[in-house]
Amino acid sequence: MSGIFVRIAHHGVTHFSVACAAMGGWAAFSNRFHPMPAPLTAALIQGVVSGCITLALKGTIERTSSRFSGWSALVAPPVIACILSAIIAVTMHRIGGTPELGQTIVLPLTVSTTYAALYSLALWNAGKDYP
């Protein structure tokens, strides 16, 4: 049974689906006091945005990290990922008319930036020469 779980966990579709459900659910919750279809629209937008960002984040961190050295290789990737994620989320929610924009994107942006910082740290540590 664990072999099936491992195979499912390694698929991009799984990561996309979990991000859609979790962050889309957060967006619906954040906009729950607004009349329908605002919570549903926010959930759909945030779900798709989070799913796409989840699929792209790992590769983006790796490519960005390889273009810098020293402390820049540690700091630049999560900062760039955060800025790009914020621009995409804000743009899509503005187009969609999400009423609670800040509250809707704060959790997904925090989660993606935390992941980016931790993964960047792991790459940075892997590239250091320890005595």
Automatic annotation (TrEMBL):
Which chain regions cross the lipid bilayer? 12-29, 41-61, 73-93, 105-126
Q: Which UniProt keywords apply?
A: Membrane, Transmembrane, Transmembrane helix
Q: Which PROSITE patterns match?
A: PROKAR_LIPOPROTEIN (PS51257)
Stated name of the protein: Uncharacterized protein
